[in-house]
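Problem 12. The chain below contains 169 residues. Write out its predicted structure in C-alpha cell notation.
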Amino acid sequence: MGSTALQAWKQRIFQFQQQVRQTPALTQGTLFTPQEPSAAPPLDPWTIDPFQLPPQNTEFWRGQFENKGGAALYFVIDDELPLLLYVGETITANQRWKGEHDCKRYLQHYLAAHRPHQLPVAVNIRFWPHAPRDRRARQKLELALIQKWRSPFNKENWELWATPFVGEF
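Solution.
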C-alpha cells in the first residue's frame, strides 16, 4: 500500500471517529413508570470513551499476572491520529491475546504497511474492566461499540472501510 493511500485511509476513519467523539450522546426518556432503582441501568455504549482509558503495550499478555483478570472490553488504538482500530470482549482480560488472535495478525500487517514509508504509528491496547460477566450482555455491548465507532479491524466494518490489513500478504 502506498503512503498516500494509507494516509487517506486513516484520515477517513479519523474524521468519522472524531465526529462520533464530538457528538453528544442522545438520552431517551420514558413514557411509563421509570425503572425500579434496584434494577441495574442498561450499559450505554455512548458512556464509554476508549480514548480516555489508560494505554497498555499490545504485548501485555506476555507479562506475569497473579490472576486471569476479569470480564472486560478492550480497544486497540493507534494514538498517532488517534484511531480506534478494534473492539473486543473477553472474560479473562489478562489472557485474551495468548495464542492465536486474528487482530494480532491485522496489527502486524498494519505496522508493516507503515514501515516502508517511515510513517509514525503508536499502537496500544486499552481495557474497560466494567463489562458484564454475562457473555451475551458483553457481546451485545461490544457490537454496539463496533457499530458506534466503526472500527476497521472488526469484520462488521471491513466492507465499509475496504480494510486492507485483514487478508494474507
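Discussion. The longest strand covers residues 83-90. Students who got a different answer should revisit the alignment rule from Section 12.3.
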